[in-house]
Amino acid sequence: MSRPFLLGLTGSIGMGKSTVAEMLREEGVPVCDADAQVRALQGPGGALLPAIEAAFPGTTGPEGVNRARLGELVFGDAQALARLEGIVHPALTRARESFLIEHGAQPLVVFDIPLLFEKGHERALDAVAVVSAPAQVQRARVLARPGMTPEKFANILSLQMPDAEKRARADHWIDTGGTLEQTRNMVKALVARLREKNPRT
Ligand SMILES: CC(C)(COP(=O)(O)OP(=O)(O)OC[C@H]1O[C@@H](n2cnc3c(N)ncnc32)[C@H](O)[C@@H]1O)[C@@H](O)C(=O)NCCC(=O)NCCS
Ligand SMILES: Nc1ncnc2c1ncn2[C@@H]1O[C@H](COP(=O)(O)OP(=O)(O)OP(=O)(O)O)[C@@H](O)[C@H]1O
Fold it and tell me: What are its E.C. numbers (predicted)?
């Protein structure tokens, strides 16, 4: 039975993954956004709140998870991060399965997964596209975000596979170091090529 072509989308912090995911949606490609799912599961009334509160007391409330607080506890403490991932990642796997059933008739679907290579998700995908920009562009983008410090940035970077390795492993590279228009043209070209590879009637 035919099925959609499964493209993974990844990239390190601040590289422009969310921006590219939005461009893909504008091209009519369904995008399953792991970060958005985590936010829903951790938001007000989210299904993961009881388990997170039990493991990290004081980090949840009526507004859901206090992400800044939880981030302080887990970024920089490998054991705590592994405990949080043990709660979050199985729920993400289930969400991905439902997404695929919902969009099973499409030629192409995208899974936007921040830690795609770090967690071995490439094994379940047909191809992977990585978004990346020069390190100094990444740094400037990330440090401009409210609440970000050079220390927090360094910690998060140390948890992620180096950008050069991601690019070496990926099948497609989307350069986000230029203008938004240049990036959009690359996105359009990639979508056209992949849809051609897997035409659906
Ligand atoms: C700790 C949390 C609450 C902090 O939230 P916050 O809004 O402050 O940061 P945000 O989620 O935007 O992450 C900031 C950066 O850290 C990276 N990051 C997030 N989780 C992880 C992780 N487990 N390992 C490595 N990098 C991570 C993100 O890709 C991003 O580049 C949140 O990141 C979380 O719940 N993480 C665990 C779930 C997870 O693994 N998510 C990433 C895959 S979907
Ligand atoms: N050519 C480009 N392609 C993509 N983003 C660009 C480009 N030029 C500038 N930007 C800007 O860079 C920022 C990238 O942020 P974005 O949230 O997309 O990154 P991200 O990789 O999803 O980050 P994180 O992993 O931390 O969630 C946006 O503000 C975007 O407008």
Answer: 2.7.1.24
Name all contacts of 50-55 with Cβ < 8 Å and 24+ positions apart: 51/87, 52/84, 52/87, 55/83, 55/84, 55/87
pLDDT, tens only, 22-74: 999 999 999 999 889 999 999 999 999 999 999 999 999 999 999 999 999 99
Residue 58 marked ligand-binding: no
**Is the domain 5-196 a CATH 3.40.50.300 member?**
yes
Question: Would the CB of 17 count as within 6 Å of ligand 2?
Answer: yes
Closest listed ligand to the CA of 96? 1
pTM for the model stands at 0.87
Residue 16 annotated as part of some ligand binding site: yes
- What is the number of residues in the chain? 201
Mean pLDDT of the chain: 94
| Structure ipTM | 0.82
